[in-house]
Design a protein that fits this description.
With 76 residues, this protein is mainly α. Helices cover 66% and strands 0% of the residues. It has one domain.
């Protein structure tokens, strides 16, 4: 029961309340982003892969060296 008492004391303490209030304020203001789901992460990776494949296809069709892609990096 001593551990529970320690946790309860912390939760009721001023430091915890202050940090909780700051966290909730950030949440309300949209400053805290939620973590992506695995599904959305995989979807984004697939989209990136498709973009890269399309870019390579376009460069190959236009007979442009793939080394030129380095100059396009700032756009990605």
């Amino acid at each position: 029961m001593e551990k529970k008492s320690t946790v309860d004391d912390h939760v009721r303490g001023p430091v915890h309340y202050a940090k909780k209030a700051a966290y909730e304020k950030k949440q309300r203001n949209g400053e805290i982003r939620q973590q992506r789901t695995i599904t959305s992460t995989i979807s984004i990776a697939d989209s990136k892969k498709e973009l890269i494949e399309d870019l390579i296809q376009a460069l190959a069709t236009a007979n442009i060296l793939l080394e030129k892609v380095n100059s396009l990096i700032p756009f990605f």
